[in-house]
Design a protein that fits this description.
With about 140 residues, the chain is α+β, with helices and mostly antiparallel strands. It contains 4 helices and 4 strands.
Amino acid sequence: MDYIAYLHKQRNSDFGVSFPDFPGCITVGRTLDEAHRMAAEALSMHISGMIQDGLELPRPSALDELAKDLARRGAVAFLVRVRPESDRVVRINITAREKQIEEIDKRASKAGLSRSAYMVRSALNLSKPGVGRSRKRNLASR
């Protein structure tokens, strides 16, 4: 499902994101890309909390319906896609060396992903048949 988000930027501030369909759900990012990533994460977590609390999700507003919304003034509207209810986000805990986490963070940043998204994508790609076999062999021989 796609929900409208408002991107706000004032001089000497980070990018702020709010959601007209979810009052109180806000996030920030230092860069435009980070704000966009954080928007999807914040909205997913907000919706997950609503579902756990047994609250009904609002239908996504159409941009025309928000034409007179005062919060839209000076903002750029964009769409944020959220996962279906059945694709719930779950927090996990892993153990890794500090240097490994630093390297993961560098690679995630370069790919324009959060640490979590990068790790999930990498793990799923390595588990595909035929992917990463030569790399595994190279790592095992070291």
